[in-house]
Amino acid sequence: MAARKDKQVTMRLVYIDFWSSLKLSFLVAIVVAALTMLISFLGWTVLDKTGLVDTVSTLLTDIAGSKGSALVSGLTFSSVMTFALVIALLQLIVVTALGAIFAALFNLASRVTGGAKVRFGNK
């Protein structure tokens, strides 16, 4: 049997298209925002069904009286989901901007360094 020779190809990545990077990072940001909303919903559901929110409210009322219950009175499903929505929208903006900034910085750095070597091979 003859030994099989492995082929390897080396290429240089010297440019990332700005708009493609922006679109891809936007899609990733949508997935991250959806996961944030889903985790917030599931987290609230678990905490509510186990009675942990009521237990904390009772504990704070016992410790601090009416001021303690006022701390937890704003902790409702709608307020938690509104807060999660605001966080998800901020994530959407930040992740999209970071994707665009990464592409621009990579393009600037590749002009100085000549790009990144990428090696492909089969085994």
Walk me through what this model shows.
The chain starts with 7 loop residues before the first strand and ends with a strand. The mean pLDDT is 88. The chain has helices at 18-49, 52-64, 66-73, 77-113, and strands at residues 8-13, 116-121. It has 123 residues and is mainly alpha-helical.
Describe the sheet with the most strands.
Answer: 2 strands, antiparallel
Structural class: mainly alpha
Spatial extent as radius of gyration: 25 Å
What number is the mean pLDDT?
88
Shape, principal axes of CA atoms: elongated
The total count of strands amounts to 2
Unreliable segments of 5+ consecutive residues: none
Q: Helical stretch count?
A: 4
Secondary-structure element pattern, one letter each: EHHHHE
Strand content bin: 5-15%
Strand order of the largest sheet: 1-2
Share of helix, binned: over 70%
Calculate the terminal CA-CA distance, rounded to whole Å: 17 Å
Could you give a quick summary of the protein structure above?
This protein is mainly α and 123 residues long. It has helices spanning 18-49, 52-64, 66-73, 77-113, and strands at residues 8-13, 116-121. It contains four helices and two strands; from the N terminus they run βααααβ.
